[in-house]
Amino acid sequence: MSDLSSINEQMRSLLARTARGRSEFEDLVVVPVFAVVVALIFGMLVMLATGVDIATIGKSFVALAKGSLGSVNALSETLTAAIPLVLAGLGLGLGFRAGLFNIGAEGQVLLGGTAAVIFGFTFHSLPFAVLMPLSLLAGAIVGGLYAAIAGALKAATGAHEVITTIMLNLISFKLLDYLLRQPYIQKEGRADPISKSVPDAAQLPRLLDWLDPNLRLHAGLFVMLAAVVLVWWILFRSKIGFAFRASGENPHAARYAGMKSGLVIVAAMGTAGALAGLAGASQVLGVLGRASPGFSADIGFDAIAVALLGRSHPLGILFAGILFGGLEAGGRQMQVDAGVSIDLIAIIQALIIVFIAAPLLVRAIFPWGFARKSKGGSEV
Amino acid sequence: MDVELRGITKRFGSVVANDGVNLTIRGGEVLGLLGENGAGKSTMMNILSGLYSPDEGEILIDGKPVVFQGPGDGIEAGIGMVHQHFMLVPVFTVAENVVLGVEPTGRLGYLDLKRARAQVDEINQLYGLHVPADTLIEDLPVGIQQRVEILKVLFRQADVLILDEPTAVLTPQEVEEFFGIVRSLKEAGKAIVFITHKLHEILEVSDRVSVMRQGRIVGEGDPKTLTEADLAEMMVGRPVSFTVDKTVAEPGRPMLEVSDLVVLRDNDEIAVDHLNMVVKSGEVVGIAGVQGNGQSALVEAITGLARAASGKIVFDGKDITHFSVRQRHSEGMAHIPEDRHKSGMVSSFTIAENMVLNSYYEKPYSKGMAIDWPTVHKTAAKYCVDFDVRTPSVFLPAGNLSGGNQQKMVVARELERQTKLVIASQPTRGLDVGSIEYIHSRLIEARDEGDGVLIVSSELDEIMGLSDRILVMFDGRIVAEFDNTGGKADRNAIGLAMAGATEGAAA
């Protein structure tokens, strides 16, 4: 080695971080932001087209802002709605990174939540410090196992996870109806399918009840934040996460590198399901207090949108989840103040996803938001 | 038809792909365009075919300036491009593919396939292409598929044909036939631009040669007065050695013993048929053969990607027939895969991540359940320096590297470990002379350190240059063996054995 110092110099420069590419920034930040803006504008157009007058439209957008951000109560509602969306969204995003399009979060939320309720009232004599965490854990485990069924089917037979998870969703709906009528689970003296209540010692404590007993924000917030960090660590720091991402980006290369595709699929589905189960558990232990048919209220489906909007990145999912939580909280206010149907919020959410899925469309609408591309350049 | 490019400049962001390029293309002449990967050849030809528009400069056809707005304009003006990757519909017939997009139609707009077939046959005859018009593309060998691509541009009345690395996918025999076609096109007055980085092909078929480096034309000349060494020096910018420098092999103990190995394809056809072979430590064994004779299946079985239906694989005295990919890797087997894009790397991952793609779970990269990224980054930087991977940073996506640097990255990852056996499949396919030279010397270095080295390549030159012993694979079996000490194996005999001639007995 003739010149050691020049080699050291070379290595130092190789280790110098390069600036993140402009295109990466555009993909992760600019496209989602514009997608939200365009979707809101389209939502306005939809209202116009359905004969809502301008004044009401103005009023409804004010209500949307007020209901999501305008008061302590609004913020509390936004965050409360965001918690299960972020948790389930993290699971879905992790699956997307591993190349798995898991549609089954809804079922995993339902069964995870139900498991948490059952665990909670079964061991109601345990103290809070034990019962609450274990109830959450029970939700995560059951959600994870339920998702792992789809993973195992794919690993063993190649059955596509989109199909199997949709079917598992349907099964979970009926299974929940059945379970809720079992004497052990059904609330005493009720004829309709509804579970016993979660004992106090299993509940996620309210965080702001010292301010106002009506504020619903609960300790699931910390579970959510911990999950964001954990998923980030799994994806970008751990060995299994490396295998997840490699399998998702290039399954041939992952196989060549000796990663076991079956193991990766089952592990990724299991982790995703555990997070969805945790979402269900935090919802029943923090907000609902019991399980009833359809208590998931489409969290598992909205979380798909959250994961897509967040670009399958834990931080992106956190922000996307809070945005969707805000839309939900604001949408309720909108219905009250302006009499506009909350369905409009669903339309806006759907439009956001359309624009996320069609970045070229967003580029075409906002050409000034993006670096000019040479025609036929290497990036699309 | 004559075409002239004047002062063409094309930038992609801060990268100047073409920098004031001047080039003249004349009818009835073959222009050889030579350059390393990333020298700007493809960009220039995409400008010429109308796919890109230049930032500066102009294109003149027969002296008149033209402006191309899109890919349709190039072919409209009579400039047709035959891409390296074919753009054919596998389940359509030749005639259907040729007329796709410009279908001859009857009065009511129905597809007149009969007329299409007649026109295809006419072109076939005119240039001696011999393409069966009614056969499905998927049933045709690669060499014939390429002629269909040529047919396509001729059908669209192109007078200038741009052939982008046309020989990369052909066997030696097919290359000869292909040159025949190029000559007959030339005689018919067509202008041909022949892009390649194979020097001897340029010398054999072109009338004029232009060499590109870093976006510029750095040399022009008459192939009759130039040697391969001249061209290579122009292309790389320094003298290049063609022969692989190596001493006589000193084979030691058997590193890899394959006995009676049978490997099946997905459809249960036999790919490897009761094959026997040995690779000893300290020797390079080359497997020659036309692609599709079971080489890929053999490599997959040795490296653990495919299951052995029967037979035995022994690695340094240990039966590894049922070992996983990872176990074989841990035992000291290195594998340079035949298709780096498909399986050798993850393009969106950083260079550092790719450097540990198959060893991230081992010491020193693994720290409990986590990966020790600082160590990974430092090691990756060291590998990049050691293996001359040219990149400004190890944090860039591997997909940003040029082909040669990507392959050097893969080779670095595989050879920087403690290895005992190196399996290299098409180690230099699609690379430029400089990278080939470098990778070859590294493989020989591995041999000299006592590794067994197995090279599988469809380039006979590569096999001849590197191997101490040459095995010829045909129809799933080793049909001949040649001693290549001092490069003295009989090239003709190898060629015959590759074609399946039976008398190629063990020498």
TrEMBL record, chain A:
**Which one Pfam family would you cite for this protein?**
BPD_transp_2
Q: How does it sit in the membrane?
A: Multi-pass membrane protein
The residue stretches assigned to a coiled coil in this entry are: none
Where is it located?
Answer: Cell membrane
Where exactly are the transmembrane stretches of this chain? Answer: 28-58, 78-97, 109-130, 136-155, 162-180, 215-236, 257-279, 299-324, 344-366
* Keyword set includes Transferase: no
Q: Name one GO cellular component term.
A: plasma membrane
Transmembrane keyword on record: yes
Keywords of this entry: Cell membrane, Membrane, Transmembrane, Transmembrane helix
Q: Name one GO molecular function term.
A: transmembrane transporter activity
Q: Which InterPro entries match?
A: ABC_transp_permease
Primary localization class, coarse:
membrane
Q: What PANTHER family does the record tag this protein with? A: ABC TRANSPORTER, PERMEASE PROTEIN, GUANOSINE ABC TRANSPORTER PERMEASE PROTEIN NUPP
The protein, known as? ABC transporter permease
State the organism of origin: Maritimibacter fusiformis
Automatic annotation (TrEMBL), chain B:
Q: Name one Pfam family in it.
A: ABC_tran
Q: Which InterPro entries match?
A: AAA+_ATPase, ABC_carbohydrate_import_ATPase, ABC_transporter-like_ATP-bd, ABC_transporter-like_CS, P-loop_NTPase
Q: Which GO terms describe its molecular function?
A: ATP binding; ATP hydrolysis activity
Cellular component terms (Gene Ontology)? plasma membrane
- Print the keywords alphabetically: ATP-binding, Cell membrane, Membrane, Nucleotide-binding, Repeat, Sugar transport, Translocase, Transport
Where does this protein reside within or beyond the cell? Cell membrane
Residues in coiled coil: none
Note the superkingdom of the native organism: Bacteria
All copies of domain ABC transporter, residue ranges: 3-239, 256-500
Task: Please give, as recorded in its UniProt entry, the membrane topology of this protein.
Answer: Peripheral membrane protein
ATP-binding in keyword set: yes
What CDD domains does this protein map onto?
Answer: ABC_Carb_Monos_I, ABC_Carb_Monos_II
Cite the PANTHER family for this sequence: CARBOHYDRATE TRANSPORT ATP-BINDING PROTEIN MG119-RELATED, GUANOSINE IMPORT ATP-BINDING PROTEIN NUPO
Could you tell me what this protein is called? ABC transporter ATP-binding protein
